Amino acid sequence: MTPAERQSAVAFALRNLLLDDRQPGPPALQAASDFMAGRRQAEALSDQARHLEAQSNSTNANVDALFLRTILICQRPWATEGDLEELQAIHRRLLPSLPEERVLRRPQPGDEASLYPAAMLEQGAAAIGQELAAERNLASLDRPVFVDRLAHYYDELSYLHPFADCDGMTLRIFLSRLSHDAGWDLDWGRADPTAHRRAIQQALRGKTDDLQALIAGMVRPVNPTRIFLIAGWDQGPAH
């Protein structure tokens, strides 16, 4: 990774945790700083994540490990099929030691009525994957259309809520990958945590205006020179 890519990976990992009200501690932040400066390689970062997680079962140790593993995710690709298997591949990289039976959300007494039935997660994920494939994974869309469709899928995936833990973090990594491959990057640093939570909750109630506005404030072209000089801000990679 280049120095800029390292810095971007650390910034994304930090923001991804903060949006879930999680804050890495000094050991993880120091390791990330060393990684950005080139004093620590990816393998050492992975070892540090295992060490932090193994030394204690505390919440802070687990958050530190999550932070470092999110940095590593940015340089370790997986099969990008836009389906439940891709979501699970991302989730496994965040929580590699989680037992298989605890990965997917399971039916529980008094389940949240606003979420998709846990017993039908596979069917729901398959339907979303098929819809995405039919839309060519949102490739070659003009910006307003892309924002609208990405908000739709963020809402659908939030409603699906496939994972009991780290669900939001997993979805944001997936949506970032999907957007980048479609020609757009998401600047999560522009998302206020309170506004982000409110937008997701409003979308689950059928009101997606706030979620669309949130995404519109984050979307930027992967290749800004091409977009601005040839097509204009509201036109996408196809032009």
Number of strands: 2
The name of the CATH superfamily of the largest domain reads Fido-like domain
How many individual domains? 2
The mean pLDDT is 88
- State the strand order across the main sheet: 1-2
Q: In the CATH hierarchy, what is the architecture of the largest domain at level 2?
A: Orthogonal Bundle
| First-last Cα distance | 30 Å
Structural write-up:
This protein folds into 2 domains: 1-76, no CATH class; 85-239, Fic-like fold, CATH 1.10.3290.10. It contains 11 helices and 2 strands, in the order H-H-H-H-H-H-H-H-E-H-H-E-H. The chain has helices at 3-18, 26-36, 42-55, 59-73, 84-94, 121-134, 143-160, 167-181, 193-204, 209-218, 224-231; strands at 184-186, 219-221. The protein has a two-stranded antiparallel ribbon. Helix 3 (42-55) runs antiparallel to helix 4 (59-73) and helix 5 crosses helix 8 (167-181). The protein is globular. This is protein adenylyltransferase. Its EC number is 2.7.7.108. It catalyses: L-tyrosyl-[protein] + ATP = O-(5'-adenylyl)-L-tyrosyl-[protein] + diphosphate; L-threonyl-[protein] + ATP = 3-O-(5'-adenylyl)-L-threonyl-[protein] + diphosphate. It holds the Pfam family Fic.
